[in-house]
Amino acid sequence: MTAQPDISRADTAALYDAHVLKNYARAAITLVRGSGCRAWDDEGRSYLDFSSGVAVSSLGHCHPHWVAAIRRQAGELVHTSNLYRHPNQGELARRLAGYAGPGRLFFCNSGGEADEALIKLSRLYGVAKAGGTEGQCFKVITARGGFHGRMFGGMSATAQEKIQKGFRPLVPGFAVAELNDLDSFAAQMDESTSAVLLETIQGESGINPCTPQFLVGLRKLCDERGILLLLDEVQCGLGRTGTFYAFEAAGIRPDAIAMAKGLGGGFPIGAVWIAERFSELFTPGTHGSTFGGTPLACAAGLAVLDVIEREGLLAKVREQGAEWLAELSALVAEFPQKLADVRGRGYLVGLQFAVDSAPYVAGLRERGLLVVPAGGNVIRVLPPLIATRAELAESVQILRETLRALG
Ligand SMILES: *Cc1c(COP(=O)(O)O)cnc(C)c1O
Prior knowledge:
This protein is an alpha/beta fold. It is built from 14 helices and 17 strands.
């Protein structure tokens, strides 16, 4: 079946040019249909979609179980607001807490919103720590190269000039320390510090993982000094690394977790898990979201968890991801002038180019592989969690051809 678009590619491009805000550098293709790991453009060309819509489409495109769940829920009840209860939100909270530990969930609609909730938690905690006085304990230490979304709190927590430029003054209270350097974090910790906020594996800046020793040491430091450890798992969580949350590999548990991207499998939903003993800092009226955790969004989230569990995807991502990483690493030896490093875990992989990576993103697309650019000449390859050995092998083949053909 080829796609039957209503309007031509040129017309779509013209509509974007005339009417859509120019805040993205979009690739010049128009996608019209998807199934599993494949997406089709308006000319009927198929792509192996290892962008997953930036780590979002965890079940690939239009997984039958996910589609059925959304269809069923859409015909039953879509939105109620948080003035009332709905079984789906309670059930999704129960299942997410099953992975995170004793604690409570708050639902929102995006990663940025989840990060804002973490930052608001740090403020409430700081006030409690300062005996009820505001404005004394609100410093949040973040990691250089981190990314916490585009909202004011998260943007202020994102120590990257390209993200913050033009939007100052920022929200005060954020300090920056060096990733994987415990001394650097310890040096920033004082009486005014309420929390540490960081990604377990930095995504946007180029797949830079926290080492397990660093996370264990940070957990200890935070415990000793009464500082919250807040982990942004918006990109690396929800099974992408082969454990449900990426921090599980270090054997630690944070005090709160931000999630979004893969959680809804393409339907917008974000969530925050807060450990039981800090969850009561949010009392009625202190935070909210009109759309957060609708019956429909939670149905999508439940469908994602169903498939991850029923199809044993975590184990598959661990095993197949390790084999795939080994094959990708062989490309570094084959093309040392072009490819400097391959790193990551599970289906969260970064290819560090020794040269400008932008032509490779385009070259891969022309050869049928969709990937995601990241900072520092890194290309992110983010297969859906359902990707098979054959599909992973196909990506290696396209990468090899592209590395051979370009520059
Ligand atoms: C994508 C991302 C965000 C922002 O999520 P949005 O849904 O775009 O608001 C925040 N933190 C991390 C780690 C991300 O990767």
